[in-house]
Write a structure and sequence with these properties.
The protein has about 280 residues and is of the alpha/beta class. The chain contains nine helices and eleven strands.
Length: about 280
């Protein structure tokens, strides 16, 4: 599973744990007797890790793992078929002291960098994720190429607002270096701990959008026409979904439908939605 799937899973674990407080909530396959562990679940009081299992205590299994994602009905070599009955729940992230310290130090450093290069005070701190292309074989089969707004669009977006908005992002191998974005190196959890200090998130549907929801952050989330925000979105986020014939397509690889949807996500539309929430 991806980080977004795992964050969604924490929401369901919280609901189940509240209903059955004396039970151990484990993630994985009961039939296969495989418990799924993730760094996203670290410090989460609602999920029992392998090392904390008590053999005689009652266990409730959440059957969520790579080959059993609850928002997917079925899939074949060409596309994913979505389960329209699925509704996501805001998840949870529990940071340790080291991650909190990392976030505080990173934010302080970036604020200092802003002050050195800008005479004016920023109005908002915005966590942004502009890179959706993944070169791994697995992720290239999960519609990543159908969820990329394009370098020029993001560059122009940053250029328009960078005088008043402090944009930051965690850099990784697929990051696009755009003037006006303050970058820092981190793992995913550390990046999310930094987001905790931001006012909102801007980017495509995925792990960071789910992290923003878990941290109760406003967000502008681009969905294109690949998946419907009714399935994996949040009603307190501003979601851009292109509902045309063929949406949501769920295609693994590049498709003409998604290219059309991306063209319909015009700069004017994104600017308008962004200005509504800042």
């Amino acid at each position: 599973m991806g980080f977004g799937d795992e964050i969604m899973t924490t929401g369901f674990a919280r609901v189940v744990k509240k209903k059955y407080p004396d039970s151990q909530i484990v993630i994985g396959s009961k039939i296969k007797k495989i418990i799924f562990e993730s760094e996203i679940f670290r410090n989460n009081p609602n999920i029992t890790s392998i090392k904390d299992l008590k053999p005689k205590a009652k266990k409730i299994w959440l059957e969520i793992y790579k080959d059993n994602r609850p928002y997917i009905l079925n899939s074949n070599k060409e596309k994913i078929f979505w389960d329209y009955t699925f509704r996501t729940i805001k998840g949870d992230l529990f940071f340790d002291n080291g991650e909190k310290k990392f976030a505080q130090n990173t934010i302080s450093k970036i604020k200092n960098e802003w002050n050195l290069s800008n005479k004016n005070k920023y109005k908002k701190i915005v966590y942004i994720e502009t890179s959706r292309i993944s070169k791994t074989k697995e992720n290239s089969r999960l519609g990543f190429y159908n969820r990329d707004w394009g370098y020029e669009n993001w560059k122009n977006f940053i250029k328009k607002y960078k005088k008043n908005i402090l944009f930051l992002q965690s850099s990784h191998k697929d990051s696009k270096n755009i003037d006006g974005i303050f970058s820092f190196e981190s793992n995913f959890r550390e990046a999310c701990s930094v987001m905790m200090h931001c006012d909102l998130f801007v980017g495509w549907e995925g792990g960071f959008a789910h992290a923003a929801a878990a941290l109760n952050k406003m967000a502008l989330v681009l969905f294109g026409g690949w998946i419907d925000p009714k399935i994996t979105g949040y009603d307190f986020h501003s979601n851009i979904y292109i509902n045309i014939e063929g949406s949501p397509c769920g295609m693994h690889d590049n498709c003409d439908h998604c290219k059309k949807c991306i063209k319909l996500i015009t700069p004017k539309l994104v600017y308008s939605k962004f200005e509504e929430i800042i």
